[in-house]
Amino acid sequence: MKNTFIIGNWKSHKTSKEATEWFEKLATLFKEETLSYENKTIILCPPFHLLPLVSSLIHEHQLPLQLGAQDVSPFEVGAYTGEVAASQLREYVDYVIIGHSERRKYFGESDEVVAQKTKQALGAGITPLVCVQSIDTTVPHGVSMIAYEPVFAIGTGNADTPEDAEKVLQTFKDKGMQITLYGGSVNPENVASFMKESAVDGVLPGTDSLDPDLFFHIIQNS
Ligand code: PGA
């Protein structure tokens, strides 16, 4: 049985109070509903300011979740106002999303910057999860985990088809990627159809990770 990755991306959402409530609800669901998660890697990527709190909430509620960040500085620690360096993130996270299409679109992130960020993550021992928008997206050297996230499917409720996801992810597998995920309007109803595809190792829900109930049911149905 393949190991399934479910990676929630909270983007720029939630206060400390909202995060605390989300965890209370998720912990209740884990207690009350049946879920076998031995073969599942569940990762949550909250915004930077919530990493210490979320880390202690995971511990407090004894949940089988790991932490990821949504971005990383392309530089080492130093005089880079507003940036968080990989070595600082390493205290909390095992994974980092790099090159999400929202970063490329709103923050002008180029393939070169994506490569610099990947290098920083790898240097700090954090697994980079590089987002690709199509089969033509460049993946930096040393990356083994990618997520295919077609722009039309992000936050629109209009997911790509599992067949398309399979085709794209298989091309990345052929190029040597070990873990290949699909993201874009993943929900509790469609997750199983993506997981049926052999090149789909997991999913990256954004919108539906904000609701603990929907996130739990994505995990349950994956
Ligand atoms: P979505 O976001 O689930 O809201 O479409 C996915 C993503 O951008 O990672």
List keywords for this structure.
single chain; 222 residues; alpha/beta; eight-stranded parallel barrel; globular; binds 2-phosphoglycolic acid
Give an overview of the whole structure.
The chain is 36% helix and 17% strand. With 222 residues, it is of the alpha/beta class. It contains 8 helices and 8 strands. The model has no long low-confidence stretch (mean pLDDT 97). The longest helix has 17 residues, at 16-32. Helix 6 (162-174) links the parallel strand 6 (145-148) and strand 7 (179-182). The protein has an 8-stranded parallel β-barrel, surrounded by 4 helices. It has one domain: Alpha-Beta Barrel (TIM Barrel), CATH 3.20.20.
Assembly annotation: single chain
Query: What ions, cofactors and ligands are bound?
Result: 2-phosphoglycolic acid
Radius of gyration in whole Å, from Cα? Answer: 16 Å
Q: Determine the N-to-C terminus distance.
A: 12 Å
Task: State the secondary-structure class.
Answer: alpha/beta
Helical coverage, percent range = 25-40%
Mean pLDDT: 97
Describe this structure in a few short sentences:
This protein is an alpha/beta fold and 222 residues long. It has a single domain, classed as TIM Barrel (Alpha-Beta Barrel), CATH 3.20.20.70. Helix content is 36%, strand content 17%.
Topology diagram in text:
Layout: E1 4-9, H1 16-32, E2 40-45, H2 51-60, E3 65-69, H3 86-89, E4 95-98, H4 101-106, H5 111-124, E5 127-132, E6 145-148, H6 162-174, E7 179-182, H7 191-195, E8 202-203, H8 212-221
Parallel strand pairs: 1-2, 1-8, 2-3, 3-4, 4-5, 5-6, 6-7, 7-8
Helix pairs in contact: 1-2, 1-8
